[in-house]
Every structure is written in structure tokens, then in C-alpha cells.
């Protein structure tokens, strides 16, 4: 129980940090995304900057909503006190994930690193909503443990952007790899590392059997 509470506090602090940083950086510090776009070279399709920027803003807003609504729904207090709010908030999460994936689908063909990065992003665009679909199917079948597992797997992908930038930074600044290759590799690493972390959280915080969850 203590383990679960400390993990929740850590995730809440990290998410708060991401939301503040992403909002400040993308809407105040560098609203034209000059730093990020400076790494794009040899794009197959010309990027329409005003449209790309607007899509990116929508992407960031919904990404922040996924973090808030996801976190809220992991609160057992909220679940116990207001099931209806948990349900409504759950649908807000699902719609927000869909919006992040949709905007990501627009940006993927222009992504830094070209086709290799685009493929990785589009894999995420399929896997992430799929996880939400599995979470909804499980809860409709009253399989609480499965529902929680799928939501943990899904929520892990809310940290995709942070992990991509973290790995890119370490590879580029720490080990001297070219920025573009570091970025592409970091997308694939995130695709693999985040579900592994989710499985670690599942194994360390959830009971093993469906009956044990029902009894709680
Ligand atoms: C929920 C947390 C997320 C946040 C806060 C976030 C934020 C951002 C931001 C600020 C950008 C602009 C460039 C940058 O600074 O990275 C961006 C780009 C992008 N994001 Fe996200 N994102 C998140 C999750 C995702 C997920 C899960 C996907 C895939 C399903 C995704 C796909 C993309 C794509 C394709 C781009 C364009 C990359 C490029 O042009 O190279 N993002 N995101």
C-alpha cells in the first residue's frame, strides 16, 4: 500500500513537472518551435509551418489532459467516493489519447529522422488506443484486474515525449551521437522501455488474481 502511495506521489510530481515545462516551453519560450524544427533536414514533404504548429499545440494540450485525467483515475479515493466521475474522466482520457494519436498521425510523416521515426510514431498511434480499447473491453466484462493492467500500460505511454527527449539528450550530449539518429533511436527505445516499466509496476503493485481485486 505504501509502495503504491509513494509511486503515485512520484508520478504526480513528474506529471506536474512535465505539464508546467511543456506548457511553458511550447507556448511561451519557443512558440514557433524553432529549436525543435532546426533539426529537421531533407524532409520528403514540405512542412506547412502554421498548420504544423497548430496541430502541435493541440497535441500538447491533449497530451497534458491525458496526464491529468490518467493520474486522477488511478486515485483509489476517487474511485471509492465517486464512480461516476471515474467513468466520465475515463472517457476524457480515452478521447484525449485519441486526439494525441490523431495529431501525432499528422506530424509523423514530417518527423525528425524521416521514415524510421515516422514508422515508430505510427506504431505508437496504433498500440496506444488499442490499449485503451482493451481497458474498456475488460471493464465492460467486469474484469477489474485486467482493466487496471491495461490502464497502467496505457498511462505509461503518456511519458513518451519525456523519455524520447531524455534518451536523445543522453545519446547526443553524453555520447556524442548525431542528434537525428539519437532522436530516432530514442523513439524505438521508448516504445520498448515504457511497456517494460508498466509490467514492473503491474507486478509490484497489483494483486495476482482477479478475486483478490474484487475483495478489496
Ligand atoms: C503525453 C505526453 C506527450 C507530450 C507532452 C508530447 C508533446 C510533444 C511536443 C511538445 C512535441 C513537439 C516537439 C517536441 O518538443 O518534442 C511533440 C511532437 C510529436 N509527438 Fe508528442 N507528446 C506526447 C506524447 C506523444 C505520443 C504518445 C505520441 C505517439 C503516439 C506522440 C507523437 C508525436 C509526434 C509524431 C511528434 C512530431 C515529432 C517530430 O516532428 O519529429 N507524442 N509531442
TrEMBL record:
<feature type="transmembrane region" description="Helical">
    <location>
        <begin position="151"/>
        <end position="171"/>
    </location>
</feature>
<keyword id="KW-0812">Transmembrane</keyword>
<feature type="transmembrane region" description="Helical">
    <location>
        <begin position="88"/>
        <end position="107"/>
    </location>
</feature>
<feature type="transmembrane region" description="Helical">
    <location>
        <begin position="177"/>
        <end position="198"/>
    </location>
</feature>
<feature type="transmembrane region" description="Helical">
    <location>
        <begin position="119"/>
        <end position="139"/>
    </location>
</feature>
<dbReference type="InterPro" id="IPR018750">
    <property type="entry name" value="DUF2306_membrane"/>
</dbReference>
<feature type="transmembrane region" description="Helical">
    <location>
        <begin position="7"/>
        <end position="29"/>
    </location>
</feature>
<protein>
    <submittedName>
        <fullName>DUF2306 domain-containing protein</fullName>
    </submittedName>
</protein>
<feature type="transmembrane region" description="Helical">
    <location>
        <begin position="49"/>
        <end position="76"/>
    </location>
</feature>
<keyword id="KW-0472">Membrane</keyword>
<keyword id="KW-1133">Transmembrane helix</keyword>
<dbReference type="Pfam" id="PF10067">
    <property type="entry name" value="DUF2306"/>
</dbReference>
